[in-house]
Amino acid sequence: MTITELDRAGFLANLGHQLAIYAAAMAADPGDLPSRQVIMERHAGNPGLRALAAIDEASQHVVGFGYGFRGSHGQWWHDVVWAAITAADGQAAARDWLDDAFEVAELHVRPDFQARGIGRRLLLTLTADRRERTAVLSTRHADTPARRLYRSVGFSDLLTAFVFPGGGPPYAVMGAVLPLLVNQRG
Ligand SMILES: CC(C)(COP(=O)(O)OP(=O)(O)OC[C@H]1O[C@@H](n2cnc3c(N)ncnc32)[C@H](O)[C@@H]1OP(=O)(O)O)[C@@H](O)C(=O)NCCC(=O)NCCS
Predict the structure, then answer these.
(1) Mutation test residue for ligand 1: of 125, 149, 150, 183, the one with most atoms within 8 Å of CB
(2) What is the pLDDT of residue 183?
(3) pTM over 0.85
(4) 144 CA to middle of ligand 1, Å?
(5) I want to staple 180 with a disulfide (CB 3.0 to 4.6 A). Which of 41, 93, 97, 153 is the partner?
């Protein structure tokens, strides 16, 4: 498995693969993919973008991807989570977690390639040598492989059972102080 870093142009060129992996990994409704594509295109313009593709050496297929960027005011997720942490724990907590944060926006591995260490490698590579103090993300509020992966590298819950504006399932917002914990598998 090769992990390749993509620049902004490479990230945009890889969007079709990313959407296909996202759809398979999340069992997403195909009708949701166009709006997901618009979100990913918008994310490409965010500061400090780091995007990775996991490529299977045998087939040369992209089988996983992850990306994130530096969070800042004016970004939808950042502002929503800022308000929610402020409401729950006060502005100092929001500042502490979000003022100097790398936001992990997406991390997905094709189902037939899951549980082989690819997601962990993508996450650790995404956050390695970042200058931000923290990493933050949201994930379904459930006992999922993703949640276990995040906990295992040092993420803890900042918000639980959080419903983003517009509805949808409950999420956990998680944060870690960088660097992430690298265990024997990292
Ligand atoms: C979450 C995801 C990216 C992890 O990638 P992966 O390559 O499958 O994960 P890894 O093989 O690197 O395993 C990392 C950890 O995840 C957990 N995990 C992975 N597969 C698991 C499984 N089938 N059952 C239970 N835990 C599992 C374990 O904690 C594992 O650590 P361990 O190997 O030390 O036990 C991947 O499972 C995925 O795409 N899931 C669906 C989409 C998703 O939820 N994305 C995250 C959105 S926030």
Answers:
(1) 149
(2) 73
(3) yes
(4) 8
(5) 153
Neighbours of 59 (CB within 10 A): 8
Q: Is 139 in the pocket of ligand 1 (CB under 6 A)?
A: yes
For residue 148, how far is its CA from the centre of ligand 1 (angstroms)?
A: 7
> Tell me: the pLDDT tens digits for 29-48?
999 999 999 999 999 999 99
Distance from residue 90's CA to the centre of ligand 1 (Å): 32
Distance CA 90, CA 156 (A): 17
- Distance CA(164)–CA(56), nearest Å, equals 35
Distance CA 54, CA 21 (A): 11
Residue 50 has pLDDT above 70, yes or no: yes
164/186 Cα distance (integer angstroms): 32
Q: What is the pLDDT of residues 121-161, one digit of tens each?
A: 999 999 999 999 999 999 999 999 999 999 999 999 999 99
Closest residue to atom 24 of ligand 1, CA basis? 145
pLDDT for 186 equals 44
Note if the bond before 145 is cis, omega within 30 degrees.
Answer: no
Determine how β-strand 50-55 pairs with β-strand 171-177: unpaired
